[in-house]
Specification:
By secondary structure, the chain is mostly helical. It is built from 13 helices and three strands; from the N terminus they run ααβββααααααααααα. Among the domains are: 38 residues, no CATH class; 135 residues, Cytochrome P450-Terp, domain 2 (Cytochrome p450-Terp, domain 2). Helix 6 runs parallel beside helix 13 and helix 7 packs across helix 13. The longest helix is centred in the last third of the chain and has 24 residues. The termini are far apart. A three-stranded antiparallel sheet has the order 1-2-3. Belongs to the citrate synthase family. Keywords: Lyase, Transferase. Pathway: Carbohydrate metabolism; tricarboxylic acid cycle; isocitrate from oxaloacetate: step 1/2.
């Protein structure tokens, strides 16, 4: 008889959703081993995010830097598809949870995924440096492969609205300040700035770091793997989505579409034509 067959039905049931994250029974809630009442009032929200994802409490400085990154990307206005969708959904009579879900569901590779892509890119360069390459050599080699085989926007650089994304320089400045105190190493900041410089040399013009590239620097410095970078962006942008959903829900408009109703889309299809046989209908 196998070990699984020896287990009782209750044991099998308890193992069905086994988790190292939370322990809960009547009167008890523990997150990663910490009593919830001990965390309340002592651990900040960024610290609890860290604890839930990483299993241990961060230092105050680590939690502070994480909070800085989360706070920087909360909103970018109704021109961002996720925010526009939130506002449109709010005019359709659905609950605020449905509004938020509708918006969050469009945060994918194109809108919301650039931070993950940027950190993966940085990670490739970090691995090459660990293998003995120089910073400039590793950056150049990775960009060579990118422009030959991938031929797309370099992740983390450029912004369709901002010649210089006002969030990025401040985030890099703060990362450098935390690195100077030994909280982080600064290696991902070095990598991002070296990428920016190499691309400028190749293109003949500077394409500055954007919010995705800058927050990827911080998440990389703090040791988060690339897939979690996307999740952290979703967590951050959910704040803006909630704010816009609530604001729109307090207004009287109903069924608000992407354009004012006086403006209709440009039709590019077949010109008006008769239904087959229509000319013969009177004969």
């Amino acid at each position: 008889m196998s070990g699984a067959e020896k287990k009782s039905g209750r044991e099998l049931g308890e193992e069905w959703w086994q988790t190292a994250i939370i322990e809960m029974s009547p009167g008890i809630i523990r997150l990663r081993g910490y009593e919830i009442q001990d965390l309340i009032g002592r651990a900040s929200f960024p610290a609890v995010v860290w604890l839930m994802l990483r299993g241990e409490l961060p230092s105050e400085d680590q939690a502070s830097l994480l909070g800085i990154a989360l706070g920087a990307a909360v909103d970018h206005g109704p021109q961002a598809p996720s925010i526009a969708i939130a506002r449109m959904a709010a005019t359709c009579g659905v609950g605020i949870n449905s509004v938020m879900a509708s918006a969050i569901n469009v945060l994918g590779d194109v809108h919301g995924g650039a931070g993950e892509q940027a950190l993966s890119f940085y990670g490739d360069i970090a691995v090459a440096i660990d293998g003995g390459a120089t910073l400039d050599g590793a950056v150049s080699a990775r960009l060579d492969r990118f422009f030959v085989g991938e031929k797309d926007y370099v992740p983390g650089l450029g912004h369709r609205f901002h010649p210089i994304d006002p969030r990025a320089p401040r985030l890099l400045e703060l990362t450098r300040a935390f690195a100077a105190r030994g909280v982080v190493s600064g290696r991902f900041a070095d990598i991002a700035e070296a990428i920016e410089a190499d691309v400028a040399r190749r293109k003949g013009r500077k394409i500055p770091l954007n919010i995705d590239g800058a927050t990827a620097v911080i998440y990389g410095e703090l040791g988060f793997p690339p897939p979690l970078t996307r999740g952290l962006f979703v967590l951050s942008r959910s704040v803006g989505i909630l704010a816009h959903a609530w604001e729109q829900s307090q207004q009287s408009e109903r069924n608000k579409g992407p354009l004012p109703r006086e403006w209709l889309w440009a039709y590019t299809g077949t010109p008006p034509r008769p239904f087959p046989g229509e000319d013969d209908a009177g004969e």
